[in-house]
Each structure stands twice: as C-alpha cells, then as structure tokens.
Amino acid sequence: MNVPLKALQTDLEMISLPVEGMTCASCVGRVEAALRKVDGVDSVSVNLATERADIRGSKPLERQALVTAVEAVGYGVPATTTELSIEGMTCASCVGRVEAALKAVPGIGEAVVNLATERASVRGIVDPQALVEAVARAGYVASPLGRSAADDEEIAAKKDAEVALLKRDLIIAAVLALPVFVLEMGSHLIPAFHHFVMETIGTRQSWLIQFVLTTLVLIFSGRRFYQKGFPALARLAPDMNSLVAVGTLAAFAYSLVATFAPSLLPAGTVNVYYEAAAVIVTLILLGRYLEARAKGRTSQAIQRLVGLQAQTARVRRDGKTVEIAIADVAAGDIVEVRPGERVPVDGEGVDGSSFVDESMITGEPIPVEKTEGAAVVGGTVNQKGALALRATAVGGATVLAQIIRMVEAAQGSKLPIQALVDKVT
Description:
Blueprint: E1 14-18, H1 25-36, E2 41-47, E3 52-57, H2 63-72, E4 80-87, H3 92-103, E5 108-114, E6 119-124, H4 128-137, E7 141-147, H5 149-189, H6 191-200, H7 202-221, H8 223-234, H9 240-260, H10 274-306, E8 312-317, E9 320-325, E10 334-337, E11 346-352, E12 354-357, H11 359-362, E13 368-370, E14 375-376, E15 381-382, E16 387-393, H12 399-412, H13 416-424
Antiparallel strand pairs: 1-3, 2-3, 4-6, 4-7, 5-6, 8-9, 8-10, 10-16, 11-14, 11-16, 12-13, 12-15
Helix pairs in contact: 5-6, 5-7, 5-10, 7-9, 7-10, 8-9, 9-10, 10-12
C-alpha cells in the first residue's frame, strides 16, 4: 500500500533542494521562477555556486511538488542518502516491515535496514520527516542522523568528474579549433599567409579541412550544448546552452552550404564561418571549466567547515557513559571530552579543567583555559585535560552550524544590480 507523501514543514521553515544542470544566471532565474509558482512558497533563493535552492513557505510545503516544478523547467534534483536511527526492531521481520514502509514513500529508490546497528540507509528525493512518519506508522521510532559522509563523498566525486570531463572536452576542442582559426583568420590578418594557403592547399581544401575539424568539435566537445539547448528551446525557455547551440549550428550550416552547395547562395556571399562555431564552443567550455573549478572550491570551503563538526559524542546517561551520534545529543546532556578530541556541541563546563584551542572561532593560536562554568564552543579542540560539559546548544543551534549557514547564505546572496542582470540575461 502506498503511503502518501506528507513532507510538510512548519510555517516559514526552510526546505533545501540540490539542483543539477544550472549553468548560468538565466538558469538560476528560471528555477527561482518555477519554484515561486508552487502553492505556498513565500521566497526562493537559488545558489549557482553550491547548486542548491532554499525555499521558504508561508504555509506547509510538499517537497515532491517542489521537485516536480524544478524538473518541469528542465533541471534535475539528484537523489541523496539519508541515515536514520531505528528503535524498536527485534527480529528480521521487523527489518522487513521497516524497509517496506520506507520503500512505500514516494521518491524513494532504495532502502536498506540493518538490525545489528539499528540504522536505515535510504536513497531518494524525500524529506527526512516523511521517512520518520512512515516508520512511525509501521510501529517503530526513527530519527534522522543527518547527511552521511558517503553522501558528501559522492557529491565531491561527482563534481570532480564534472571538472575532469570539462577539461577533457576543452582540450579536444582547443586542439581541433586552433588549426581552423589559423587557416581562416590567419588568411584575413596576414596577406602573406593567405597567399601561402592558396598556393599550397587551396581554398577548397582549406574549407574541407575546416569542415572536418569543426564537425569533430561540435560532435564531441559541443554535444552538451545541443543536448540541453534544444530541449530548453522546445520548452520556450531558452538558456545559454540554447544560445550557443543555435549560434554555432547556424554558422556551421551556412558554412556547409557554402562548401558543398555554393550555387544556392547569392553571388558574393559564399563564405565559411567554421572558425566561429569551433571557437565559440572552445571559449564557452573554457568558461564552464573555470566556473566548475570555482564551484568546487566553494563546496570545499563549506565542507572544511562541516569537517570541524564531531560525528559522535560521549554522553552520561543512566549512570553510564555511552557514545552516540551527534544528532542524538540533547540540550542539557552531560558530554565528556577527552584530550585531543573536538568538542561536539556548545556547552558549559561542569567538571574538570583543560585548555581549548579556539583558533577556528577567534583566530587566536594560544589555547584558552576552561574550567567549571566556562563556555565551550563546539568544533574547538580540547588539549591535554579532560572536560565534562553541559550541552547548551545542539544541532543547528551551535555556533559552528550558524557559521556554516552564514557562509552558505553569503554565497547565495545577490546584489541589487543582479536582479537587473538576471532579467537582461
């Protein structure tokens, strides 16, 4: 039986979606416009660098409706991996029941439940809250553990592969376009070179060579522009890919007629523009390559901040010290921090004394002494002593989590003039 998707958020709570396929400011504007049309959406901010869309609703929003809106304008929302902690399972039949409940949620591609670790790994496009509700309906208790390290590695690997592919296509395009450019533009710029070409290979042979090389550029390196540009044009929502596709194809088609059927053209208009098509593809690929590298650095900066967060914490519960996932730490828990470890959450010292390296917050390299009553920031590094602290802020309320949100917001913010730029684009 299908479980209806109730990926609902409280008023003005933000939903964040990864978006694939954006290449320019017009793509950002198109995704933002599509998301604003979804019922209940109050504001939208799309970040080209991080390839994410942040949506705020004036009323509860359904995530699947947002995904559908993005896909309708030609972009993709990639599946992500969500880790859940499951309580209450006692046997293999419990595992099967939880897996069935998770797989019934629309948007889920794969769900694997482990009885030994009491965890579930779910891959798909869905709000974690919908998964929690599905497990609850099956009679168990679930809580999200946050985005997994494997998911972060997968995203990083995908970006690296994108950069590598762009670099390969750029090299191919540059190597093939250079002779075309030299043969055509060299003849225009240097009369002696023009005479040399005429006396050696001749105009006809020169055009045939340009035809072959340009065809290879468009087929191998320029294919991406046609695969994305023409479908966008068919949707009456042209983007930069459409512009490149139409421009290069027009230049190539005219040159093709001039080369193989010159009698179809008026006298005095038989010219070729192979170099325009080849060079445009090469230059746009160069821009895309530089942009992809810049986006990779942006993601790395955020990942370095995320890497400062501890993944687990030792918490005193029921007279014992247990190690739990950082997402399970609650405000008021007593957390123990051993020498050399990162402080998992923001807290206040209740026992022990030590020196803590707070350079990640203050930039000051000298460790600061922490004793009973002292405030300790999550993500800082404990030095030689042992500390016990009472958690005062956990999850998204910690100082480090707020810094990460501020960095992402700063990268996604737009200057007022950018609104005009988006319209012109």
